[in-house]
Amino acid sequence: MKISGVDIRPGNIIEYEGGIWRAVKIQHTQPGKGGAYMQVEMKNLIDGRKNNVRFRSAETVERVRLDTKDFQFLFKDGEQLTFMDKENYEQITLDAGILGDAAAFLQDGMDVVLELYDEKPISVELPSTIEATIVEADAVVKGQTASSSYKPAILDNGVRVMVPPHIGAGTKIVVDVYEQTYVRRAD
After folding, report:
1. Distance from C-alpha of 172 to C-alpha of 134, rounded to nearest angstrom
2. Measured in Å, how far apart are the chain's first and last C-alpha atoms?
3. What is the SS3 assignment for 13?
4. Translation elongation factor P/YeiP central domain: from which residue to which, for each copy (predicted)?
5. What is the mean pLDDT of the chain?
6. Where is the domain boundary, 97, 125, 153?
7. How far apart are CA 168 and CA 41, in angstroms?
8. Which range of residues forms the domain containing residue 147?
9. Domain containing 167 — which CATH number?
10. For 106-137, how does the pLDDT look when each residue is reduced to its tens digit (9 = 90+)?
11. Which uninterrupted H or E stretch holds 66?
12. What is the rounded distance in angstroms from the CA atom of residue 85 to the CA atom of residue 70?
């Protein structure tokens, strides 16, 4: 399906210069001279390269629809991740690099969605938020206001996030997987 360059949105998968790319960030710019354009930061889904491309409204790109399938994460063995197809129970092993920084948030038994292009897995989509426990948090510095200051904390998966001053070690929190940020205290 062809779409105009200015209709690209974050998360769209497009075919560009013979590769399959995911739009990560977009910025619509309308300069004083000349026509408007869309500045698109893209990530290649096959080899992980990043690229910044400027699309004008007259340009069209091919939007790609990926097949999606529900899988369950089973275990990690070194840099290899093993997933199980929830329909036929077949197992598939992928390199941890396919997930990037989000790999740290994988939990045994977690339901994920694999995106397939020509029957080949090219990306793994985790839930947008997960619950994690803080194992280490800095002490509150006296005189800081609660509204604007955050302190560093380390989660049980080793990821470092910034949390409000009232959150201490042992607290369960909800974390945004892709932004790696504190969302709220877990119920």
Report:
1. 6
2. 43
3. strand
4. 68-122
5. 84
6. 125
7. 37
8. 129-185
9. 2.40.50.140
10. 888 889 888 888 788 877 888 888 888 988 88
11. none
12. 6
Question: pLDDT class for 142, splitting at 50, 70, 90?
Answer: low
Question: Do 104 and 81 form a contact (C-beta atoms < 8 A)?
Answer: no
Residue finishing a domain among 12, 34, 63: 63
**Among 48, 171, 173, which residue's Cα sits nearest to residue 99?**
48
Q: Is 86 helix (H, G, I), strand (E, B) or coil?
A: coil
Same domain, 115 and 86: yes
- Given a cut of 80, whether residue 156 has pLDDT beyond it is yes
Query: How far from 91 is each of 81, 82, 88, 120, 160, CA to CA, in Å?
Result: 10, 7, 9, 14, 31
* C-alpha gyration radius of the chain: 20
- Here the CATH number for the domain that contains residue 10 is 2.30.30.30
* Residue whose pair of structure tokens reads 């426990």 in the numeric block: 133
Shared domain check, 58 and 7: yes
Number of domains the chain is built from: 3
| pLDDT value for 172 | 92
| Short-list 56, 12, 49, 50, CA closest to 34 | 56
Structure tokens at 106: 């994988």
